[in-house]
Design brief:
Elements lengths: L6 E7 L6 H6 L7 E6 L6 H6 L6 E5 L5 H15 L4 E4 L11 H11 L3 E5 L12 H18 L12 E4 H6 L11 H11 L4 E5 L13 H26 L4 H26 L8 H8 L21 H7 L15 H7 L1 E2 L8 E2 L7 H18 L7 H14 L5
Parallel strand pairs: 1-2, 1-4, 2-3, 5-7
Antiparallel strand pairs: 4-6, 5-6, 8-9
Helix pairs in contact: 5-8, 7-8, 10-13, 11-13, 13-14
């Protein structure tokens, strides 16, 4: 007993014949129940546990391997059946130091927490003795687990040294929790959905001659899949179905805006690929009625567009440098096509070439056509014919009025 609470030690074991006896015999006196679950080990793990003859011990053997999560949930169910108030998970390889057991129990007993777990990364010396690949993997998984589980105050989610109150366990659906090595992550997500208070406890890790059976090639994809689906499930159950919190609305709107901004950003970047082009607005400023009043707007205005039949049809022969015949009668438009070169005499005309986009080209052709019709003296016999001819030539060049 620990301050009036019945404590159960939950010990999942798989191929731990070299360590399981030490784990059982070093359990402190405050532990009232010891549940060892042999997860169908091919060695003598079951026999070594039974041989300890500890009166607090119950040994259960799985006829089929269910994974570490399955073994833990089997032990939790048996501990609850025996009346335990708090269940503490101990690894079968002896990595959990029982001297720190009171530190895990105090927040549950005194502060009302429903779940506590050890955190190995609590100081600058916490990494000593831990393999480098485990350090890196735990840091990455800790960040992903924070997002998926919603417990931003917890770190080191793969640490299995945990304590859970009976009240929290009774609210869990054991059948829906993952049973393999992703058990710890899924367990946290289910606790968060139930609003169970959780806390980290600084506890160092103990590493000996044990051999890890974790296969990263299998574990990492399973964890990523679990965290993705678990995150969506947590948001749906906790913030939509349960309470329809504004958080769900903000998240949905934020996600849509993020997707739109991502697509818009890609589109903007795509527009910068290739040679620069004059926009429709630039061309309109150059050839519009106000072009003569704004010299800077016509400083580099095209007199030709090499290789474009539509512009040559409307503005004369490409590369000629001559004023297009359609606009000779309009001084404002004519000045837009022949500009003064600042480096020469004011009487010298200098043509320029600029690459224009298709919309800009069509706009320019439209302005030229309009200038042509405005510059010709209308007569009763020619106005209708000329207007129809100009519009027909514009339509054949892809210009629409």
């Amino acid at each position: 007993m620990y301050e009036g609470h019945k404590i159960a030690a939950v010990v999942p074991a798989f191929k731990e014949e070299a360590h399981i006896a030490r784990v059982v015999t070093t359990m402190p006196d405050i532990v009232d129940i010891i549940i060892v679950v042999d997860d169908c080990s091919p060695d003598a793990t079951y026999d070594r546990a039974v041989e300890t003859n500890d009166p607090r011990l119950t040994v259960i053997r799985h006829e089929e391997n269910q994974g570490v999560g399955g073994a833990i949930m089997t032990a939790h169910a048996e501990a609850m059946r025996q009346g335990a108030d708090i269940d503490v998970v101990f690894a079968g390889d002896g990595q959990m130091d029982p001297a720190y057991l009171p530190a895990l129990l105090d927040p549950i007993v005194h502060d009302g927490y429903g779940f506590t777990k050890a955190n190995r990364f609590y100081s600058s010396t916490s990494f000593r003795g831990m393999p480098a690949y485990r350090v890196f993997g735990n840091i990455v998984l800790s960040f992903l687990n924070k997002m998926a589980s919603g417990y931003w105050n917890l770190f080191d989610p793969q640490n299995g040294y945990t304590a859970t109150s009976r009240k929290a366990l009774e609210r869990l659906d054991f059948d829906r929790i993952a049973k393999r090595y992703e058990f710890e992550n899924d367990f946290l997500m289910h606790l968060n959905i139930l609003n169970v208070r959780a806390r980290d406890v600084p506890i160092p890790a103990v590493y000996g001659d044990e051999v890890s059976t974790i296969k990263l090639g299998t574990l990492v994809p399973a964890l990523l899949r679990l965290m993705s689906t678990g995150f969506l499930r947590r948001i749906m159950l906790k913030y939509v179905i349960g309470t329809f919190s504004p958080i769900a609305l903000f998240m949905a709107v934020g996600t849509l805006l993020m997707m739109w901004s991502f697509g818009f950003g890609i589109w903007v970047l795509a527009q910068t690929i290739g040679p620069p082009e004059a926009s429709t607005g630039t061309v309109l400023l150059c050839v519009g009625p106000g072009a003569r009043r704004h010299p800077t707007a016509v400083e580099r205005v095209p007199t030709r567009h090499r290789g474009d039949a539509r512009l040559s049809d409307l503005s004369g022969q490409p590369g000629s440098g001559a004023t297009p015949p359609q606009i000779r009668g309009n001084a404002s438009l004519r000045s837009a096509f022949t500009t003064t070169d600042a480096s020469e005499s004011s009487s010298v005309r200098s043509p320029f070439t600029i690459t224009m986009s298709a919309p800009a080209l069509r706009a320019m052709g439209t302005i030229c056509a309009i200038g042509y019709t405005d510059s010709v003296e209308p007569t009763a016999s020619s106005t209708s014919h000329r207007s129809a001819a100009v519009k027909a030539r514009c339509r054949s060049s892809g210009i629409r009025f």
